[in-house]
Each structure stands twice: as C-alpha cells, then as structure tokens.
C-alpha cells in the first residue's frame, strides 16, 4: 500500500486508457483483476487481525476484484462471507466468481442483522465510472452495513461517489476507514465530499505503467535552507499592500516573513505598528511601491488581505496589477476583479496567483458545476494565472493545465485570517522562485502541528518551525 503524497491522479477516462495500454502490452483483464484482488486480500488480511470478513460484490469488474480477494483470503485461512448484487455481468467477473468455492449470499437488508458476525466489511460493489444515483434501497443498506462495521474498506472507490467530481451520488453513504485505490488515485479520492467518505486512502500497484496525467497530489516540497551566500534580498522581498483592515495585511506580512522571505514591506496608511520589529512599515503611495521594488530580482507583491472594496482599494489593486512583479491577489482584491481587471491580469508578463475560496471564486468566475479540478483549470486558462482554489480540499491549477490537489486539511483552519496567512506564505515562495504549492503544503503542515483550537496568529508563527524543517 502506497501513501498518496505526490501520486498522479487519473480521471475515469485516463484510468481506462491506462488499463487498455496494459492489455495492449500483454496483460489480460483477468490478470489485472487477479493482481487487484490479491492486493486487496493482502491489505485486508493484515488489517483484519483474524476477524471474519464480509465482501460485497457488484455485477461488474469491481465485483470481480472482490471475488478474487475472497478466494485469496479464504486460502490464507481468513473466515470470509460473500454477498452479491446479482450475477456477474462481465466475463472476467464470472470467471472470478466461478473460482470462488463459496456460496454467495444475496445482497439485502438481512445482511445488517448478521453483520456482527463479520466486523470487517469490504465494499466491491461499484468502482470507477459510476455516474448515476445509486438505488435508494441499495444505498440505505450499504450505509447501514458501513455504519455497523468495525473496519469498513472500499475497493477502488466507495460505492456511490462520482469518480471525477467527487460528488456523492446517494444521500446515505457511510464513512469508510480505508479506501484501496487500484492502480492509481482518482479525483474522488482527494476531492470533497468523496474524500471524507473514503477515509484514509492507499494505492495498490496492479501492474499499470505510463500513468499519464497532469494532475498530482500535493507533496512535501524539496526547497531546503537558504544557500550559504544568501542575503535578505536574494531570499525574496515581499511587499504587502494594506487597507481598511490592517490586521489582515499584518498577518499576511508576518506569514511571509516566517515562510522564509528575507525582507518584508507592509504598506499601510501609517508608518506605526506593533511588532514584529523586523517588519518594515511604510506609508502607501504608488511611487513608494515602485521605488521599493526597483531593481529587485527576487520580489513579489501581495494585495487583498484587508484591502477593502472602495475606490482607494481599486487604485491600489490597479497599481499592483500594472507592476512587472509576481503578484498574489487575495481576499477583497478578488471581489474587485471585474471583467476589465481580469483582462489586465491575463495580460501581465509576470506570474499572477489568485487565491479564492468558494465565495470569492464565484465572485470572479461565476457558478460552476462538476469537478472542482475542471473549474479551477477553466479559471486558470481565462485569467492566465495560477488559481489556488481554497477549501476543505485545495486545488492549484496553472494556465498550462497542471493541477496539484491538497487533500482535506485541519478543520480548525476554518477561522478568520488563515487565508491571509496563506497569501503571505505564497508571496514568500514566489518571491524566492518557488511554486505556490510549497506554501499550501507549509500552511497545512503548520495547522497539523498546532493540533486544534488555534487562531491565525498561531498559524503564522508556526510557519517558522515548518520552514526550518525543510
């Protein structure tokens, strides 16, 4: 079982293509099924701790994987029961069922009363490709079985989630402890709400190669400490443009400092301010911004946290967009991105990072349906920017079509100011020539280390320890 960090993510169509390539290279459907079922059986055997196992099989090849797993488990001395939703409908699944050597029970509500006999549940009903709503009776029965099982495990995907969008196709899906992704991850493993239904996700190798996809799971960045000859400007200058809510821009500025930037300028209406004293505060003016950035090779601007939405805020945003420096647009500034400003953003020569949460995304790009990945890619193409679409799952999409997905992080991030911290950290990374992905990882890691009930100020301070660990 392989952890998911850095792993490729394949859509249902990409997964079918990968399987077709494996078959063209000499593997058969039956061989792929045998590898998948054996991998599931080994994982279940290790986790079941000799407990009896109930395997639920569907009519397709996902059910065939379940039949193979049942046969292998039984061969290894594990007590196994199998229940099926009708007869297998594919040749490979029929062969797997014929070689089972067990009586198959019908899938139904009668299983619920007997589930205490088999506290480990393996769901191999529906796998990749499901796009229709699950029958209510099937969904209710499956949800009850998952709820009363000590260890519910899904094969490839929990039955009842959409592979590509991560949508729940039933109202009564349970929450699994573990999902065993066959061959590669799918979007539903990392996109909400399906990711929460999946529980922990691990990848099983079934012999597929050339897993071609521009989508990946976020991984720990490999950026290391500053080089021996580093100085404050080579590590990156970040200019944060403040506004109506100075606390928000101060949070972004402190986060940029603690994420590794060498010099931070906070532009606000007054030169005064509270510690940290290493933060340089300067009165705002367009000329002051341009002068501070003149000749700096490693620099970036952050605009939006606490900016406000009045005329002065618009002027500040326009000044930032007109510069030839990498730019992070967050918070209030996103609400000011009308069609004309979005065209200005698309015409910039330097990198632009947009960091919307769901409400800000709607304000800039309108409503969307379907996959959050697809919506982020469309937004990135329209704005010629990198879009960091925040949320319980965070999707980072570039205008070139690359996608990184950060699976669900700490729910304690749902507090005021954490987005400002992320904007500042992204500013530090792009000023130093790194990708915004590194900032998203550090932000999530800082939250993980803090545990719970933290505030945004704690999160910003924790970035120092996280950055030092890289």
TrEMBL record:
GO terms for molecular function: ADP-dependent NAD(P)H-hydrate dehydratase activity; ATP binding; metal ion binding; NAD(P)HX epimerase activity. Binds 1 potassium ion per subunit. Residues 15-214 form the YjeF N-terminal domain. The keyword Hydrolase does not apply. (6S)-NADPHX binds at residues 61-65, 127-133, 156, 248, 306, 357, 420. InterPro entries: Carbohydrate_kinase_pred_CS, CARKD, Nnr, Rhodanese-like_dom, Ribokinase-like, YjeF_N_dom, YjeF_N_dom_sf. Residues 29-91 form the Rhodanese domain. Its EC number is 4.2.1.136, 5.1.99.6. Its cofactor is K(+); Mg(2+). Keywords: ATP-binding, Isomerase, Lyase, Metal-binding, Multifunctional enzyme, NAD, NADP, Nucleotide-binding, Potassium. CDD domains: YXKO-related. It catalyses: (6R)-NADPHX = (6S)-NADPHX; (6R)-NADHX = (6S)-NADHX; (6S)-NADHX + ADP = AMP + phosphate + NADH + H(+); (6S)-NADPHX + ADP = AMP + phosphate + NADPH + H(+). K(+) binds at residues 62, 123, 159. Residues 215-470 form the YjeF C-terminal domain. PANTHER family: ATP-DEPENDENT (S)-NAD(P)H-HYDRATE DEHYDRATASE (PTHR12592:SF0), ATP-DEPENDENT (S)-NAD(P)H-HYDRATE DEHYDRATASE FAMILY MEMBER (PTHR12592). In the N-terminal section; belongs to the NnrE/AIBP family. This is Bifunctional NAD(P)H-hydrate repair enzyme. The lineage of its organism: Bacteria, Pseudomonadati, Pseudomonadota, Alphaproteobacteria, Sphingomonadales. The gene is nnrD.
């Amino acid at each position: 079982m392989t952890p998911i960090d850095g792993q490729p993510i394949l859509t249902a169509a990409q997964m079918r293509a990968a399987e077709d390539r494996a078959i063209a290279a000499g593997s058969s459907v039956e061989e792929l099924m045998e590898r998948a079922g054996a991998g599931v059986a080994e994982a279940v055997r290790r986790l079941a701790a000799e407990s009896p196992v109930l395997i639920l099989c569907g009519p397709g090849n996902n059910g065939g994987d379940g039949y193979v797993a049942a046969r292998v488990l039984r061969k290894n001395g594990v007590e196994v029961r199998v229940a099926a939703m009708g007869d297998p409908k594919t040749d490979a699944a029929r062969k797997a069922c014929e070689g089972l050597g067990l009586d198959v029970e019908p899938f139904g509500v009668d299983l619920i009363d007997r589930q205490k006999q088999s506290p480990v549940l393996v769901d191999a009903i529906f796998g990749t490709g499901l796009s229709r709503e699950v029958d209510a009776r099937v969904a209710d029965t499956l949800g009850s079985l998952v709820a009363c099982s000590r260890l519910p495990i899904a094969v490839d995907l929990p039955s009842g989630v959409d592979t590509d969008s991560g949508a729940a196709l039933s109202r009564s899906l349970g929450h699994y402890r573990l999902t065993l992704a066959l061959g590669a991850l799918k979007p539903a493993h990392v996109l909400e709400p399906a990711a929460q239904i999946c529980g922990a996700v691990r990848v099983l190798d079934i012999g597929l190669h050339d897993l071609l996809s521009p989508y990946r799971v976020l991984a720990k960045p490999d950026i290391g400490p500053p080089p021996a000859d580093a100085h404050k400007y080579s590590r990156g200058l970040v200019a944060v443009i403040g506004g109506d809510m100075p606390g928000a821009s101060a949070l972004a500025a402190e986060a940029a400092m603690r994420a590794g930037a060498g010099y931070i300028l906070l532009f606000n209406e007054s030169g005064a301010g509270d510690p940290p004293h290493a933060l340089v505060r300067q009165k705002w003016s367009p000329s002051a911004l341009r002068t501070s950035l003149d000749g700096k090779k490693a620099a970036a601007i952050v605009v939006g946290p606490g900016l406000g939405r009045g005329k002065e805020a618009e002027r500040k945003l326009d000044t930032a967009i007109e510069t030839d420096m990498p730019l992070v647009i967050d918070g209030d500034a996103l609400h000011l991105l009308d069609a004309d400003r979005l065209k200005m953003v698309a015409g910039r020569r330097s990198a632009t990072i947009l960091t919307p949460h769901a409400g800000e995304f709607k304000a800039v790009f309108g409503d969307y349906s379907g996959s959050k990945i697809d919506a982020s890619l469309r937004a990135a193409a329209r704005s010629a920017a990198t879009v960091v679409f925040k949320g319980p799952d965070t999707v980072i999409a570039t205008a070139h079509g690359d996608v990184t997905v950060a699976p669900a992080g700490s729910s304690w991030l749902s507090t005021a100011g954490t987005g400002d911290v992320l904007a500042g950290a992204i500013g530090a990374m792009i000023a130093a020539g790194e990708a915004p992905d590194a900032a998203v990882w550090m932000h999530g890691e800082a939250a993980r280390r803090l545990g719970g009930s933290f505030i945004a100020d704690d999160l910003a301070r924790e970035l120092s320890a996280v950055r030092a660990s890289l």
